[in-house]
Specification:
Restriction Endonuclease, alpha+beta, two-stranded antiparallel sheet
Length: about 220
């Protein structure tokens, strides 16, 4: 017997909220105080989470926002990791229903040299969704790339190159690439990848490349 509104027991994150989250991230970043060229993602994401919380409240989006939420193995109880940003539908009673985003730096200045960090974007970000470490009950997830030198076209090119060489590991059809977003096809900074996650779940990963224009060189 289900008591109350049956929608609170939905099996998936509400599809109509996914584009709203993409818009929320994009619009909040536009007025956000950008990180410096060598800043790390954790303090940036902490500040960004607070800005997102304020913005979603102003827009009255039915969401809750969490940062560094712990994900545990359901069998062993061992900690699998901490999700950088987690959006939870306000009406859901199921704790496994959420839209998760991993945040990674791209095109970083370190010791006078630039590092793309595109390989880490794949191995320490995208892979966590494909292996079921995060969002194992979800149909959508997301990656946020903080492009610290403001060159998002370059960052996307390098990420796509690394995706192409890791298609099998990422459970992607070949040739594997960053496609235009189906939800926001006119947004140049948003891309999408599709993954056939075992045993038989198609999973969409939304990529937002957020430029730090004031730090561009």
């Amino acid at each position: 017997m289900i008591v109350g509104d049956p929608d609170i027991w939905s099996d998936t994150f509400p599809e109509d909220l996914v584009p709203s989250v993409l818009d929320l991230i994009t619009e909040t970043w536009a007025t956000f105080e950008k990180p410096g060229p060598s800043d790390h993602e954790v303090p940036t994401t902490r500040r960004f989470k607070y800005a997102l919380k304020q913005a979603k409240d102003l827009r009255r989006l039915p969401l809750r926002v969490e940062r560094e939420a712990t994900e545990d193995d359901p069998q062993t109880g061992a900690e699998l990791g901490r999700i950088d940003l987690k959006f939870l539908p306000a009406v859901s009673a199921r704790e496994e229903i959420y839209l998760a985003f991993e945040c990674k730096r791209l095109n970083v200045a370190e010791k006078g040299r630039r590092r793309s960090l595109a390989p880490e974007y794949i191995t320490e970000g995208m892979s966590r969704f494909v292996t079921g470490q995060y969002a194992r009950a979800a149909l959508h997830g997301g990656m946020i790339g903080y492009v610290l030198d403001g060159r998002s076209d370059d960052a996307m090119r390098l990420v796509e190159q690394n995706i192409g060489t890791r298609a099998t590991d990422l459970c992607m059809n070949t040739p594997a690439r960053l496609d235009r977003s189906r939800l926001r096809p006119d947004a140049d900074h948003i891309r999408e990848t599709s993954h056939n996650v075992p045993p038989s779940r198609w999973f969409a990963l939304h990529h937002l490349f957020l430029e730090c224009r004031s730090c561009g060189t």
